[in-house]
Write a structure and sequence with these properties.
Number of strands: 5
Number of helices: 7
Number of domains: 1
Structural class: alpha+beta
Largest sheet: 5 strands, mixed
Helix content: 40-55%
Strand order of the largest sheet: 1-2-5-4-3
Shape: globular
Radius of gyration: 20 Å
Distance between the termini: 59 Å
CATH architecture: Alpha-Beta Complex
Length: 171
């Protein structure tokens, strides 16, 4: 125990047990350090995502690009009113199905296949076989997680590298 107040210790212990792990001092320091550059990273994240979304709209093998920053996105007006930016996650449907999606993921070099979406590096997610694999196919289809849906968390790498990676993977 690091407190000299038993009542406070018990309250903190209850919160820790009911809410989850409490970050270590080092984790807290990393968070504070990261906050200092968060605005710069988010601007680059969003700028890259917009360029990726616009690029995907020009690709024959990329269908139905989903990004709230695009004017034709169904949620664009709401996002524009409620948000100061549009974030960095872009989704699209690749022409074809599971085979074409797997081929796409196999060709990526800069984007890394991952369950998580959110970091400075660019990540790609195949929801049908990753985050939503346990869902029955008919439920996945109902909620829009089709076999050709690809989600990208666009990182802060140089945009030319990201677009070249996607162009090659879509061939």
């Amino acid at each position: 125990m690091i407190l000299n107040d038993d009542d406070l210790y018990e309250k903190i212990k209850l919160i820790q047990k009911s809410v989850g792990a409490v970050p270590s001092p080092f984790d807290s320091w990393l968070t504070l350090r990261g906050v200092k550059t968060l605005a710069v990273r988010m601007r680059q994240h969003e700028d890259n995502a917009m360029k990726v979304a616009r690029f995907l709209q020009t690709q024959a093998n990329a269908l139905e690009v989903y990004f709230p920053g695009l004017e034709d996105h169904p949620g664009h007006e709401i996002a524009r009113k409620q948000m100061t930016g549009f974030g960095g996650v872009v989704s699209f449907k690749i022409k074809g199905g599971m085979n074409e999606a797997n081929t796409f993921f196999g060709k990526l070099k800069v984007f890394q296949l991952a369950d998580s979406l959110g970091g400075v590096e660019s990540l790609a997610n195949y929801s049908a076989l990753m985050t939503h694999e346990a869902f029955p196919p008919e439920l996945r289809k109902k909620i829009g997680v089709t076999d050709n849906l690809i989600r990208l968390s666009v990182g802060i790498e140089h945009i030319d590298d990201l677009l070249a990676d996607l162009k090659e993977a879509l061939r």
